[in-house]
């Protein structure tokens, strides 16, 4: 079959690769001039089944409420005159019970484990390089009370087969001596030894090259303007460069997936959640961290990438703008310098803000759509890097009418 994949971000390119493996002809359409120029450009870099907790939790509504008057909350709600935003926010709040959080976390953890295995398989098959790093990830806490509660909550992940170890302050620093400068801020931590990290943008670009070598037609600078239906199926994709016939289409447009879906008469519960990142030189630090991790009480993630250090924080429910200014990163950089020292960023800081395509559950939508030959692989939120390769394999299974390699429980389209 000839499959047209909409979007050349990480999700679109991994989907194209799995379809090519299955013997399909693949065309990928991307409005930017290169792959991974939007959500996948400068994300956290953590491949983190050990951090697969649902964002919708009993603590989230309080953070959203406090964010209306304080700017230091990990989850911020900036109200807009937008029915789309309010509909999504109300659906998100319904997921913020202990019962729903536990159920969504279980599904998410299983998906993340499967997806990491698929990532490892793809890397073994292709040899792509992306500043990948194994050796686990650390999740540490500044207060003994939060650490104790987190140790108990980690049973949700252990129940799904993940290894999560409890570490004292000294054990955290022994695991990564690069955290010695953060000793005073660490009460204890959790260590997921099979977690990993790497640069999602480098991975996506390298895999796009592999896909081209396998025969994929990747068309950059090409904007999708609509889909032509006939007899209940998609017959062609309309673009700024003309019409492209298709036997099947995969929707991988992230935060813009709902806009195209609405032109076809159905809705998707995907809304942008803005995240902020900075990339600095690891050489500026007296001792840089050697593996990635998260300062959990500030939801500040850090990730070594070769000679760079990527820092990410904040989830802002504020619409579709990616605009930012240096002052927007002040809280993040203050917290980071508490951990890694005042030299952080001394030789320069690369600022970035991107839009995570979030569903209320925090789980992606990987399924058939209401239209026979239109497939959905979208809504991966803040863990798209971790979940993308598994979701790509599931999508290829759906298109090939195969038994799913991994269940799409919790990820099915629900109109």
Automatic annotation (TrEMBL):
EC number: 1.4.99.-
Gene3D superfamilies xrefs: D-Amino Acid Oxidase, subunit A, domain 2, FAD/NAD(P)-binding domain
EC supergroup of this enzyme: oxidoreductase
Domain FAD dependent oxidoreductase: 3-398
Family to which this protein belongs: Belongs to the DadA oxidoreductase family.
PANTHER family recorded: D-AMINO ACID DEHYDROGENASE, SARCOSINE DEHYDROGENASE-RELATED
Name of the protein in question: D-amino acid dehydrogenase
């Amino acid at each position: 079959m000839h499959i047209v994949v909409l979007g050349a971000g990480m999700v679109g390119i991994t989907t194209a690769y799995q379809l090519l493996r299955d013997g399909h002809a693949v065309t990928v359409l991307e409005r930017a001039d290169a792959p991974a120029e939007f959500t996948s450009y400068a994300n956290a870099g953590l491949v983190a089944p050990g951090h697969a907790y649902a964002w919708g939790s009993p603590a989230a509504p309080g953070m959203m409420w406090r964010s209306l008057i304080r700017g230091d909350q990990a989850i911020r709600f900036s109200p807009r005159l937008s029915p789309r935003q309010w509909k999504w926010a109300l659906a998100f709040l319904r997921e913020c019970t202990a019962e729903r959080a536990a159920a969504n976390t279980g599904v998410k953890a299983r998906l993340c484990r499967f997806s990491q295995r698929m990532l490892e398989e793809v890397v073994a098959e292709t040899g792509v390089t992306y500043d990948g790093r194994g050796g686990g990830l650390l999740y540490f806490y500044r207060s003994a009370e939060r650490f104790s509660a987190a140790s108990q909550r980690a049973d949700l992940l252990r129940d799904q087969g993940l290894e999560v170890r409890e570490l004292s302050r000294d054990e955290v620093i022994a695991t990564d001596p690069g955290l010695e400068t953060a000793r005073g801020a660490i009460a204890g931590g959790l260590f997921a030894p099979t977690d990993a990290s790497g640069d999602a943008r480098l991975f996506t670009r390298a895999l796009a090259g592999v896909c081209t070598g396998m025969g994929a037609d990747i068309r950059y600078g090409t904007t999708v303007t609509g889909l032509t239906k006939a007899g209940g199926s998609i017959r062609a994709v309309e673009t700024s460069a003309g019409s492209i016939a298709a036997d099947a289409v995969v929707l991988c447009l992230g935060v813009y997936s709902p806009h195209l879906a609405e032109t076809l008469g159905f809705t998707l519960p995907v809304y942008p959640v803005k995240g902020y990142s900075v990339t600095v030189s690891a050489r500026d630090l007296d001792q840089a961290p050697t593996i990635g991790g998260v300062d959990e009480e500030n939801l500040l993630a850090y990730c070594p990438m070769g000679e760079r250090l990527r820092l990410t924080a904040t989830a802002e429910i504020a619409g579709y703008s990616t605009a930012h200014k240096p002052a927007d990163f002040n809280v993040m950089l203050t917290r980071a310098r508490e951990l890694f020292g005042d030299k952080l960023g001394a030789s320069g800081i690369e600022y970035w803000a991107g839009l995570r395509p979030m569903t209320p559950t925090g789980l992606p939508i990987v399924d058939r759509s209401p239209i026979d030959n239109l497939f959905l692989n979208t809504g991966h939120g803040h863990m798209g890097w971790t979940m993308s390769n598994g979701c790509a394999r599931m999508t290829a299974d759906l298109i090939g009418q195969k038994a799913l390699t991994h269940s799409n429980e919790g990820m099915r389209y629900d109109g």
